[in-house]
Design goal:
382 residues; disordered N terminus
Length: 382
């Protein structure tokens, strides 16, 4: 169970951030970030309340500074104040929070690492993201920093680790990486891997191998082999595959996760389409990280720019085996550069809505907890 940080400890942490930022500013600190305000209303389904609301203000503060000519420090912190049904989700993913009258406040260290860069070598170490694969939606090969298409705005959680890159040529990269165990309270489960990446004029190919040490020293641990390809021909094409072999689980084809997709633009870029299919084996890494119950999924996105300031978008995800869908309709308006207003409506659908026979799908109302979810969000970038 997560431990609550008391108010004075939280204030000390905030003061430390401010003090550190001020000290680094004297060394040429660059600040950037986003500030989101989100109002959410939900018509509940299943065990959820019939109606619920929530409000959240969330800031992602990023900074970087250079040390001489070859080293840099990068960091990012999330600050959250939330109430209603957003508050529980906000504090569940945060490293420290306080809860009192009116709102719950959370503080999360998102990134903190340094980089040493030479002409052909690069070392990153600390709390960072180690991206793997080119998938735009599902990301089956990105097992170190998994993401969910259900939360497209969420920044992938970092890992405490290191990556070392070598660039023999401008188009060839060799990679070695390591990450601490998923459970920070144990010393078993370290991940280490190697990979390579090659770029051509209209295509890129990446491959890697990773080993995860077992919690039981008398077992074999996990082996992962991943490949990713992207090509820019008449349309953008991407293919990702990650196979996880676990001797104890007797992994066969159920250890495979693979995605194939494309994106294309029409009308001089005013309309863009993206579609990506996912196969998720029962013992694959993506099934574990996302809690997927089936094997076949598809996600599609269409974005239409009415003008330079207004965009319409439709995103739909489908679980093909149980015939459930999650369409999300949205409109986005940019009143001025750096500010965006977004209104979206999510309406889960499954066969039970039309037959009443209890065919509750994975993406349907009962299992997602709502018949409809409406969100109004304001984003400021600085």
């Amino acid at each position: 169970m997560k431990k609550i940080m008391f108010a004075h400890d939280w204030l000390i942490a905030m003061a430390l951030i401010v003090f550190t930022s001020g000290a680094l500013a004297a060394q040429g600190l660059d600040f950037s970030g986003t500030l989101d305000s989100r109002l959410l209303g939900s018509a509940g389904a299943g065990a959820a309340p019939d109606f619920s609301m929530g409000f959240e203000t969330w800031a992602n503060l990023r900074f970087q500074t250079k040390l001489r000519d070859y080293a840099s420090i990068y960091g990012a912190v999330n600050l959250i104040a939330a109430t209603g049904n957003i508050a529980a989700a906000a504090v569940s993913t945060s490293t420290a929070y306080v809860s009192g009258e009116n709102y719950a406040a959370a503080l999360e260290l998102e990134r903190l690492y340094f980089r040493i860069r030479g002409e052909a070598l690069q070392l990153d170490t600390g709390l960072l993201r180690i991206p793997l694969g080119y998938s735009l939606v599902w990301g089956p090969t990105d097992f170190l920093n998994p993401r969910s298409p259900l939360l497209p705005d969420a920044r992938p959680r970092g890992v405490l680790g290191a990556s070392f890159s070598a660039y023999p040529t401008d188009t060839l990269k060799f990679l070695a990486f390591a990450a601490a165990p998923k459970d920070p309270l144990i010393s078993d489960g370290f991940i280490a891997g190697v990979g390579a990446e090659k770029h051509w004029d209209k295509a890129s190919l990446q491959g890697f191998y990773a080993y995860e040490s077992p919690e039981d020293p008398y077992t074999w641990g996990r082996h992962r082999i991943g490949f990713s390809l992207k090509a820019d021909i008449e349309l953008g094409f991407v293919a990702d595959a990650l196979y996880t072999y676990d001797y104890e689980a007797k992994t066969t084809i159920d250890g495979l996760a693979a995605a194939v997709g494309f994106d294309y633009s029409f009308f001089k870029g005013d309309l863009s389409l993206l579609a990506e299919y996912l196969y998720s084996g029962e013992n694959s890494s993506i099934a574990e990280s996302m809690g997927l119950q089936h094997r076949h999924y598809i996600a599609m996105t269409a974005v239409y720019s009415i003008n330079d300031y207004t965009r319409l978008n439709l995103t739909a995800m489908a679980s093909l085996e149980d015939v459930s869908f999650l369409p999300i309709f949205g409109v986005e308006y940019e009143p001025f550069q750096g500010m965006t207003l977004n209104l979206s409506c999510q309406v889960p659908l499954d066969r039970d809505l039309f037959t009443g026979r209890g065919n509750h799908g994975e993406l349907g109302p009962v299992k997602t907890g709502s018949h409809a979810l409406i969100t109004l969000k304001t984003r400021l970038k600085f």
